[in-house]
Amino acid sequence: MDKRLLLCAELIEGDFVCDIGTDHGYLPCYLVKSGRCSSALACDIGEKPLASAREHITAQGLSDKVKTVLSDGLNGVSLDGITDIVLAGMGGELMVDILSRCDRIKDGSVNIVMQPMTKAELLREWLYDNSFCVKNERACISGRFGYSVMSGRFGVRAPYECSEEYFRFGLIKCDSDENTEYIKRECDRLERAARGMAGSADKKEQGERLLAVINKKREEVRRYDESK
Ligand SMILES: C[S@@+](CC[C@H](N)C(=O)[O-])C[C@H]1O[C@@H](n2cnc3c(N)ncnc32)[C@H](O)[C@@H]1O
Q: Counting runs of H as helices and runs of E as strands, what totals does the chain give?
């Protein structure tokens, strides 16, 4: 289990998890083996990834507790008793597509853990517009990459504003070394995009707004580093 999946595991709240896009099935196996969950569904759209998940589940001796399901997103997945849904290692657009096609989760009865690989800002915007409240968001650094993991529920009013800062950095604050390192890296990545925008007439304003947020976050990073 890499740090990214371990962070997803930390945000699980209940004891019956449904992992969408499970691939190798590491996360559901880890959750059950470690006793955090009593059972799990390992779901994937691909036969090949599911076969590799089944192999791992069998090797771990968990065939009675971790079941595989061939499914496109949550289509056809029984959510009876499910406490948590995980969407990890996919793009933000695919997550939006999967979540938007499943009305059964909109009553807030399940905790949803998401780790977008790309387009986190698009996911955050869609979640906000669809009455989803992010309760936790944390970052981890693994090798050259920084990852953000968020969790929350539908149907709860978000107590934060849907600002440019929120879209870009979510709820991650300079309150730990890892979160701060993530913010630093995001500032570098976003600055390149913002400079490109600032040079084009129709995106100039957007680029300037983004640069202002980046400068604010860099100031927070500087204060955090100084306080250590
Ligand atoms: C990069 S892997 C991520 C595996 C694991 N969740 C992780 O974070 O390490 C993405 C997986 O999502 C699956 N996937 C893609 N689209 C999907 C969909 N619509 N429904 C279910 N699974 C999907 C792919 O088959 C692939 O196994």
A: 8, 7
